[in-house]
Design goal:
Strand content: under 5%
Radius of gyration: 22 Å
Largest sheet: none
Order of helices and strands: HHHHHHHHHH
Structural class: mainly alpha
Distance between the termini: 31 Å
Shape: elongated
């Protein structure tokens, strides 16, 4: 078994390329580099071409529950999501290192959790750009963007209704076309699933686990998965995603 006396250079030699890849993808994740990329034409739901938008579709009353819901303040933004994902990983890795003093296991936990989250991120972003599904609040994004001069429209819009000082820029409008699947759900469930399996195998169903530890481990596992479930639920209640977006995102995670 490895110990803290082992040279960290051993892990850099064997896993250095993976750590570099994780760092690169992690930077893309934290900086939301894909926000300025316009997705392809929608493969699910109504289709809107921003170069020649069909406002008959956008403002069709039958689309009210599909793309006509109001924009609201999201309960868990990107920064909060990153904190919710990174914090339990750091806690689990730190506790495990302090208790076991096993660099091999620490390396596996750190690299494994990061790869789980970032693999789900890459897969989710690729699907978002491919499917181009409109978010439930797309109509308001479109109106606010048009009133701010971000896009040209063929008709006069009621800009007084959105004259509250809050504007939507082009990246926000593009984001409104990336509903499927949910990135919040996929990232949170990727982290929660990896950590739940790590904690569970060690402290719940492990053969050498003391009986008094199992209930504590079970609570930790339930908390991890419950937290991911809460994140996914807020995406629907905040009008950021349709239910199936969250279901698929959770499955990916």
């Amino acid at each position: 078994m490895s110990s803290l006396a082992d040279q960290p250079g051993h892990y850099l030699a064997w896993y250095g390329a993976e750590y570099l890849a994780v760092a690169a993808v992690g930077t893309l994740w934290l900086t939301n580099v894909t926000s300025g990329i316009e997705p392809l034409s929608a493969l699910i739901g109504p289709v809107v071409d921003l170069k020649a938008p069909n406002e008959a579709v956008i403002f069709d009353p039958r689309m009210d529950d599909v793309i006509g819901r109001p924009m609201v303040q999201e309960k868990i933004g990107t920064t909060a999501l990153a904190a919710m994902i990174i914090t339990p990983i750091v806690v689990e890795v730190g506790l495990d290192l302090a208790l076991r003093r096993d660099l091999h296991r620490t390396n596996a936990l750190l690299l494994g959790s990061a790869e789980a989250v970032f693999t789900s991120y890459v897969a989710t972003e690729a699907l978002k750009l491919t499917f181009g599904r409109l978010r439930p609040d797309f109509r308001e994004r479109y109106v606010r963007a048009a009133c701010a001069g971000v896009i040209d429209t063929a008709s006069e819009l009621d800009c007084a209704a959105v004259d509250d000082g809050f504007s939507v820029d082009r990246s926000d409008l593009y984001d409104g076309m990336k509903s499927f699947p949910s990135g919040h759900a996929s990232s949170s469930f990727a982290a929660a699933t990896f950590l739940a399996l790590a904690v569970g195998s060690e402290h719940v169903w492990g053969t050498s686990t003391p009986e008094w530890v199992r209930p504590i481990g079970a609570v930790a596992v339930a908390g991890l998965l419950g937290g991911a479930g809460f994140v996914a639920a807020t995406r629907v209640s905040d009008n950021r995603h349709h239910l199936e977006d969250v279901a698929v995102g959770s499955a990916i995670g």
